[in-house]
Design brief:
- The protein is mainly alpha-helical.
- It has one domain: Winged helix-like DNA-binding domain superfamily/Winged helix DNA-binding domain (Arc Repressor Mutant, subunit A, Orthogonal Bundle), CATH 1.10.10.
- It has four helices and three strands; from the N terminus they run ααβααββ.
Length: 134
């Protein structure tokens, strides 16, 4: 019976090792899922940073404070009509008139930084690429 006991002991050790390996494999699978999630988050973060950098480069192409604020407001809020944009620019700089916003939008449109889109009233958005070589 000594040989049978040795075989049982060996089998017991093998089963313990298999259990440890299975545990490590589950842990590695969990680690892999976590890494994939972090990778996705990093891609999203890089995309956001790229967009912010593009908007800031666009803002540097213009010389006036109001133009920079128009670009930043459109980038942050998406397409806006002149009234909505005037409100957003007021929040950023304290004052803005619809007339001035309208004039500046025409100039920014001529520079290729913003574009008019379909919507209620005159709706504008930051132009994709907006004069920036990405």
């Amino acid at each position: 019976m000594g040989e049978l006991d040795e075989i049982k002991e060996l089998l017991f050790k093998i089963i313990e090792r298999l259990d440890r390996l299975e545990s490590r494999m589950r842990s590695a699978e969990d680690d892999l899922r976590s890494l994939e999630m972090y990778k996705s988050l990093l891609r999203a973060y890089a995309s956001i940073l790229g967009s912010v950098a593009r908007v800031e480069r666009m803002a540097q192409l213009v010389t006036s404070d109001i133009d920079r604020n128009i670009i930043r407001a459109l980038a942050a809020k998406g397409p806006l009509n002149i009234s909505q944009l005037t409100e957003e620019v007021r929040k950023l700089r304290g004052s803005a008139s619809r007339r001035v916003i309208s004039e500046r939008l025409k100039a920014l449109e001529e520079k290729g930084l913003v574009e008019r889109v379909n919507g209620r009233g005159k709706v504008y958005r930051v132009k994709s690429g907006g004069g920036i070589n990405d």
